[in-house]
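call fold(seq) -> tokens
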Amino acid sequence: MIRVLIADDQPLVRRGLALILAPDPAFEVVGEAEDGARAVALAHELRPDVVVMDIRMPVLDGVQATEELARTLPESRVLALSTFDMDEYVVAALRAGAYGFLPKDISPEELIAAVHTVHTGEAAVAPRLLTRLISTYVRASARPRPAATAPAGLTPRELEIWQLLATGFDNAEIAGDLEISVSTVKNHITGIFTKLGVRDRAQAVIAAYESGLVAAGHAGG
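ret:
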């Protein structure tokens, strides 16, 4: 059973989320918090597997609460939710350590699936948000950085793969572009994540943007 803590400053939203999750025998809603500070305190007390965290809350906002939980209670994985699916919120939440980010207008089925995904340690970012993050904030540089300036000791091949990953290529597309096998791509990506200290593709995209590997601005200029 997946133990879930719900944090939102609106009682009706908390109740609605609980009503979506509670009937599923895979979940146990162990608590509700009305602000970020209370969410952190309850998480330490109740040790949930997943914290469904609103981003905009009083006392301590969801990003700060997520950062605190990622630092002090990493086994409680955060799934961030927001009415406002602006890109800066997505970036801030993922940088703080959230395992996922969803807008509040998702379906009950999407919420349930995302909680399951986050519980397994995988990223759950709404496709429209990740796609927009890539298309709005990043576009490929003309060439990868030379190996001498590669961050975190990445090899030239890893740098190529990171750049392609950051611009939206999936594993099969990367393999086709570089004329290598998909299994080789997967092995390289595992090494890239380790060297960058990131957990998943979403964080790798953000790291590429912040490192300068890909340039800021709208896609195509």
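Residues 138-149, 217-221 have pLDDT under 50 and may be disordered.
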